[in-house]
Structure formats: C-alpha cells, structure tokens
Amino acid sequence: MGFSDTGVYGSPNHSTPHIDRFVSAGIQFTQWISAASICTPSRAALQTGRYALRTGCTGVEEAYRVIPTPSSPGGLDPAQHTSIATALNQAGYRTAMAGKWHLGINEHDQDRHFTPLSHGYESYLGAPWTNAPMCAMDSEGYSRAISTGPDYCFLFANDTVVEQPLAVENFTRTITNFATDWIHGQDGEQPWFFFMSYFHVHTPLFTQRANRGRSRGGEFGDNVEELDDSIGMLLETIRVRGFANTTLSFLTSDNGPYQEEGWAHAGRTNLYDDSGALIGRLRGGKGQVFEGGVRMPGAVLWPGVTPAGAVSDTLVSTMDIFPTVLAAAGVMLPPTYVVDGKDMTPILRNPATAMTAHDVFLHYCGFRIIAARVLGRWKVFWATQSWYTNDPADSSICTECCNGVNSAGTAFAGVNATQLCGCGDKDLESHEAQPIVFDLQEDLVELRPLTKASWPTSAPMSYDSVVQAAAAARSAMEAQVHPKPSITGAGTCTAGLPSPARQPCCSGCHKKLFGKSCVDEETGDTCTCELL
C-alpha cells in the first residue's frame, strides 16, 4: 500500500471512512517506517521485533528476497525466533490470525514447522504463502486462471488445506468472517490478541463482484475500499463485544506500492498539504529503501493512552509493535534475546513531545546495510539502487522503478511476473567514499542530496557527526550478525529448492515428483477441496 492510499492520508480517489475514523480516534504517524521494503523480511520483523538480517528472511537476488514458493524448505524458525503470539502465550493470551503469512510452511515433508500454529497462534485461517500472479482468478473467482494457481494459492484452517484452489474473490470476506466470529467468541475474562493480515492491495487485484466499479480509483481503489469495509466490520465487532475501551490496535502496511505492476494496479506515495493540494511524491516503491518503499501509513489507537486526533512525525517502526505489545502485556523475554524494535509507549502517551527511541534506524537491501536514518531526520546512503536495470524506462508503466519480467516466474510458474529493483553489486551505485545525506525534515522527496560541502550551517548536527553516528550503528550491527547469502543469493529463511514432498494439498492428496498438481492418493485424479 502506498503512503497516500487512504482518505486520511490524502487520497482523493478512495473512500475509506472506517480507516479514517480509526486514525482520527488515535495517533496518525507520518514517519511510520517498515523494517523492509518487501513482504517476507517486513513480516518477519513485525512478528519478532528483529531486523530481517537476524532472522535470515532476506536475500540478494529478487527470487530469494522473499520465500519463493509454498513448497520451499525455509521459513521463520520458531526454534530461534520468538513471535508476538508465542510471547503473549506466556501471559495467558488467546491468540489467532487470519490472512497472508508468507513466512514458510514446511521444512521437511509435511511437518508444518513454520506455520502460524508453530509460532504460537492457536487458530488460523488464511493463505500461508502470498498473493502472486499465479493466484489470478478465473471467471468464477478461483485461483485457476493460471495452471499453477492451485499449487500456490490455497486456504489453510489451522494446518490443514481446506480450499484448493483458493476462492480469491471471496478471500477478504472469508477471513473477515473468521476474525469477527473469533472476536465474538472471546469471554472478556482472558486477554486476547488477533493479527489480521490482508491480501489487499497486493496484485493481482481482486474484489467481490458487488464491489467492482465502486471507487473513483478504478480497480485498485475498489480493493482499498473493500479493505476498508472489512476493517469497519472488525472495529464494529470489537465495539459490540464491549472491548473497544480495553483494546490496543495498530494499523499499517508491510511495504510500499508495487510500481512495476503499472499505474492502474499500484498504490500512490503522494504528499498533500493541509488544503489537499498535491505538493510532491515520495521516491521509489516496493523493493527500494527510498521513502516510497518504506514510509507507511500507520496509526495506533489505545483508549485512555493515545490522545484522539494527534498527528506525529516522530520515527516509529513496524518492528516497534513487538516490544510495545509485550510491554503492554507485561511480558519479559530473556535478556539474551535481542530485540531491535523499541517500545513506543512513551510516544503513544505524549506524541507532541516524546523523541524517537531509534537514534539510528538501519535500512537493508538484501544482506547489505545501504542506508540509515539518524534521529528520524537525516537519511544517510552508502549506496542507492539503480533504476531500469531490467528493461528501459517506460513511464507508461512506472517511474523510479525497475520494470521488467522475472525470468524465474516464467520458468517455474508459467506467469510473466514483474521484476523489482535488486540488491546485488550490479544493482547498486556506491557512495562509500562520500555518503550522501537527505534532510527529511526539509526534503522528504529525497531530491536534494547533501554533502559535506553543501551542508546547511543552521543544521543542529554536522555532516560528519550524522555520518559517523550512522556508520557506528552499521558497524555495531555488522559485528553482531554475520549472515552470508547462499550461492543463490538467499538467506537461511528463503533458501532451498521447492519439493513436491512439501507441497500442501487437500486431505488424502499429494503431489507427485513430476506432477503438475495435487492428486487423489487412491484415484490419481486432480484433487480439489472447498471450504464448507
């Protein structure tokens, strides 16, 4: 989702009354920063409060910057990393999740080593991989427009495949009904935690038939507004059950818009003044560490703690959800367990005066720390990603991007998946000799790089002190963590080849070594199942 894709963040084309009311009731953040610019590492950071470098959920080459298939052998390892749900279990919380996971399924055969249940969620309904071109829906709303769709896109109830192919058209309604039913079922005596993780607004775009054409923002806008409807239903359920005054809620996105999918299918990163006039656009998008890839819409509502209607430009991160929730629940982790996120409670209580807890926040591209922001104001780049490294520039598709076709998607999944900007040597322009710095307070669109020679004399910190603070934090992290990419450019979480032995199938079915889909173990027929 782009920074400006909801009404409260300025969109003139999307009606999001439920999101807008939620944000206006709590704190709206204008510098909410994701820990990564792409989904698997971002989601790993949310679940653990750790940079993706610690979890291995990252990669250099695009195919391995995320977990590439549902039958890959990697994932976020619960034996090494504590999730929010696992931590809250210690305090007696009931936990559940719905929607997209994308942090792994099976390590060996059908062991379900990486699923939400393995990470402490007691109940789960959703798609354990992700939304991707293979999930494109046919005329009946199922993930079978592409022949490989059923293998990539299916529905889990806890650890069991209950729908294959996935009823994509109704996916948002399905997970919303699960979420509202689960919240309705809480007795009010035992504390609870629910994680709602939408496909919207990831491509391929989908909406229920009744919602098509409702938005001024076209198909993408229809997605945004269907998302808003679901959020409204969750908030109403919380209210009806009497939980509204005792519930801490967060709202954000995992990364910026997928520009390479084309203007009609991607979000926006526009900036508007108080009158609604367009004043600029954040640079870059998904896969990049420019602001368009990592600056998210973000809001927190905690009745009795967050002042209504507050707006804060203080730096907070998606990683901060983990320690903030644990602090609110009174959960203490062993002192040896490293958490990179910071408890944002002081900012939630006093958004007008509290300072960021991140003296330096690091930005990764694959395994490399290529940028860092100092005190939420200055952003130091030791390298920048090059644009148009795949195909020539084509403004009819996108700008400030890396439009092209992912050859791995064509070869293995039979789809022409678009390609993001990479993190390898060929993808980066080095600034190690003289880092460039942007003053985000004066130049949020990152168009006026500062050097030592052009540094403003009125700045409260010198160029050298900003660069030195960033470099010290980078060196400290590199001294702590020494991950090395595999020969394919993958991390421990994203590495490995897919195997039919790990392919999730409906009960009583499996995938053969050279088979194209799951088959019935008795008849050999193509296997399908539907959620009842």
Quick structural summary:
The protein has helices at 17-25, 39-48, 52-55, 84-89, 149-152, 171-184, 218-240, 291-294, 321-329, 345-349, 407-413, 463-480, and strands at residues 27-33, 94-99, 123-126, 155-157, 160-163, 192-197, 249-252, 270-272, 278-281, 295-301, 310-312, 316-317, 360-365, 368-374, 378-381, 383-385, 428-430, 436-439, 509-511, 518-520. The chain is an alpha+beta fold and 532 residues long. Strand 19 (509-511) and strand 20 (518-520) form a beta hairpin.
Please characterize this protein's 3D structure.
By secondary structure, the chain is an alpha+beta fold. The chain is 21% helix and 16% strand. The protein is built from twelve helices and 20 strands. The longest helix is centred in the middle third of the chain and has 23 residues, at 218-240. It is globular. It starts with 16 loop residues before the first helix and ends in a 12-residue tail after the last strand. The model has no long low-confidence stretch (mean pLDDT 95).
